[in-house]
Amino acid sequence: GAIGYLVGEEHKGLACMFTMMNNARLEVGMQGVAISERAYQRALAFARERVQGIARGHTQRSAIIHHPDVRRMLMQMRAISEAGRAVAYYASAQTDLAHHAASAEDRAAHQRRVDLIIPIVKGWCTEMAQEATYLGVQVHGGMGFIEETGAAQYMRDARILTIYEGTTGIQALDLLGRKVLMTQGESLRSFTKVVHKFCASQADNKAVTEFISPLARLNREWGDLTMRIGMKAMQNREEVGAASVDYLMYSGYITMAYLWARMAVTAQEKLDAGAGDQRFYQAKLKTARFYFERILPRTKTLEATIDSGADNLLSMDIAEFSN
After folding, report:
1. Is the pTM of this model over 0.90?
2. Which of 153, 206, 283, 308 is the most exposed place for a label (fewest CB within 10 A)?
3. ∠ CA 112-114-120 to the nearest 5 degrees?
4. How far is it, in rounded angstroms, from Cα 291 to Cα 79?
5. Proportion of the chain above pLDDT 70, given as a percent
C-alpha cells in the first residue's frame, strides 16, 4: 500500500493549508492585475490607431482615443490595474513584515493586515479583471471578437480567476466572517488605524484634500457598516452570507482609495520638487482623481445593498424560483 509521511505537526494541517492558500490567493490576485494591465495596454494601442468619427475640436476623422466614452473605458482600465498592482505589492510587503519585523508584536500586527488584505486582493482584483477585460473588448468594438486582436482571449482567460483557489463568495465569507467578525473586528481596526494615521498626517496638506477628506470619511463609515452587519448577524446568521460579496467589494474600493491617496501624495511631492518624470506624476494624480470621482462612489450603492439585509434574498420559496 501507499506510504504516508507527516509534514509538520499532527492536527495542524489546516493551519498549514491556510498558509499555503494565502500565498496562492495572492498569486491569483496578481494574475488578475497582470491580465487587467495587458488588456489596458492592448486597448490603448488600438484606441490610438483606430480612426472613427470626428472628435470635438477636430476637423478630420480622429483616432477613437479622442472620444470621451473611449477615454472613460481606458481610464477605468488604468485605474483598476494600477490600484490592483498597488494592493498586491502592499499585501506582499505586509507578508514579509509579518515574518521579519523586529518584534513579535509588530509581526502579529502585520499578520492581521495580511489576513484582512489577502481576500481583498484575490476577490477584488479578479472581479475587477472581469471589468477591465470586458472594457478592453468594448474599446475594440466588433474587432474585439476577432481573434487576431487578442482582446477576447484576455476576457476568457480572466474568467477563471474568480473561481479557482476559492470563489469570490468564499473570499467574501473569509473576509467578513472569519477575518472581521470572528476577531470582533480586530483585523479591520488594525488596518483602519493605519488609514486614519495616514489621513491625519495629511490633514493640513491642501494639495491633496480632494483625496484625504473622502478617504477619512469612508474609513469611519467602514467600521460603522461592519458594526451594523455584526448586530444583524447576532439575530440572523444568514446576514453574513447575504452581505459578504458586497462587503468584500466595498472594502476593496476603500482599500484602493487608501493606496491611491498614498500614490497621489507621493506624486504631488515629486511635482512640487520638480523631480523625475513630471508627466508620469501628473498622470498619477489624474488617474487618482478619476478613481475618486468615478469609481469610489460605487461604495454608496454597495452600502445600500448591504443595509437592505437578507430578507430580499431569502424570502422567496425555493419552489417559486421555477415560476
Report:
1. yes
2. 206
3. 115
4. 6
5. 100
